[in-house]
Amino acid sequence: MLRMPAGRAAPGARGFVRVPRVPRGDGRRLALGVAVFAPGITATSVPGSRPAEANAAFDLGGYVPAGILPVATGYLADAVGLTGGATVFGAVVGACAADGGAFVLAQAE
């Protein structure tokens, strides 16, 4: 039987939970990818030697807004009505798409 907490890890030992991260120097690529693929759920192509971590980082850009926006819209619709909630939802999605497009165009120059 495993009892929690399991205790401290030995010095220098690596934990068994890995948090995905972006390889050093690829933050700009991640930002561009999230800006382009945020309306979708996954990226179509992930170069590099650690595709699982890179894909997880790209997925974060899709799943977080895809989960937060509808839930927030539901609460807003309860507070102000369906028409107002749907209007704000459309405006937020449109603004995010415009901001993402502007960011990509600015980086392309």
Automatic annotation (TrEMBL):
It comes from the Bacteria. This is MFS transporter. It comes from Actinomadura algeriensis. The lineage of its organism: Bacteria, Bacillati, Actinomycetota, Actinomycetes, Streptosporangiales.
